[in-house]
Amino acid sequence: MLKPDFSERLARRKLYSHVLHDEAGMTLLAYLLRYPRMDEAGWRAAVLAGCVLLDGKTASPETRILEHQEIAYFPGSQPEPEAELRYRIVYADPDLAVLEKPANLCIHPTGPFFRHTLWHLAGQELGELFFAGRLDRETSGLVLAARSSAMAARLEAMHEAVRKTYLVLVFGNFTVPVRAVGRLCPDPEFGIEKMRRFIPDSAASGPERADAEFFPVLQVEDMTLVRVLLHTGRQHQIRATMYSLGFPVVGDKLYGPDPRLYHRIRTCSLTGEDRMFLRMDHQALHAAGLEFPHPVSGEKMSFRSDPDWPILMR
């Protein structure tokens, strides 16, 4: 299989954002300084070198920006933040692959990550991969990928036949199985735009509808290991539902015992006491099971993965 030219894609990679109403009138340099990727001298040099474009054109660092303008940055090849680079090929054939990823590894290139992603790492070994679904950077476990765009379309068409199970470790004594059907809505309580709240609603429909089953597996000190069978795949669904049911997720800065810790991790001010409070350095969510009919042969494919959380080994 022909390997993708990752170096060319890296050179063409673009990070961009759009100017919001309250950002209009700032200088381009002042806007960029809100991103800690570089200091003032670095951003000024990037603008003057043409690595930053305003609506597709070069501009000076002192240019006043306008609402809705696009600011694009071409980072090129630069050092990337540390990540857990180990991964495992669980299964591969000419059509698809099943991979096991660790926590602290992005699946797709995003932000400062390009080489330190599962897409890049596994792609060098298997050729370009097209992932069917995605896991958050801090979520470990199994992920399914197609090995061609045509196969990716076939996997997308049969997504309802893909059965996924997860393991999540939560604070509290979760003792009774729960079928959680409802809506995932914005949660304004902590002023975090991405945070969601689960609201029970058996009549829920549309893109907000969330449906999952939760089964207690093991009691670990003041925590419970819970198996989750997803019937819908919404962003943050498991973590937001568990939190809303009163069982915050171990290690989770957003849906853990104190969502205010999310602001501290964003400002790099998380303390040692905060980390002890969380119990783990990443959210305790693991994609543990994957079952689906093979899109070509029709054979039933089934894979299992166990989390390597030291907290379960005590």
Write up what this structure looks like.
This protein is α+β, with helices and mostly antiparallel strands. It has three domains: 6-73, Roll (Structural Genomics Hypothetical 15.5 Kd Protein In mrcA-pckA Intergenic Region, Chain A), CATH 3.10.290; 79-157, Pseudouridine synthase (2-Layer Sandwich); 161-307, 2-Layer Sandwich (Pseudouridine synthase). The chain contains eight helices and 14 strands. Strands 4, 5, 6, 7, 8, 9, 10, 11, 12, 13 and 14 form an eleven-stranded mixed β-sheet that branches.
CATH fold label of the largest domain: Pseudouridine synthase
Amino-to-carboxy terminus distance: 45 Å
* Low-confidence regions: none
Biggest sheet, in brief?
11 strands, mixed
Going by CATH, the architecture of the largest domain would be 2-Layer Sandwich
Mean pLDDT across residues: 89
Number of E strands: 14
Counting structural domains, the number is: 3
Short précis:
This protein has 314 residues and is an alpha+beta fold.
What attributes does this structure have?
alpha+beta, Structural Genomics Hypothetical 15.5 Kd Protein In mrcA-pckA Intergenic Region, Chain A, Pseudouridine synthase, 3 domains, eleven-stranded mixed sheet, 8 helices, 14 strands, globular
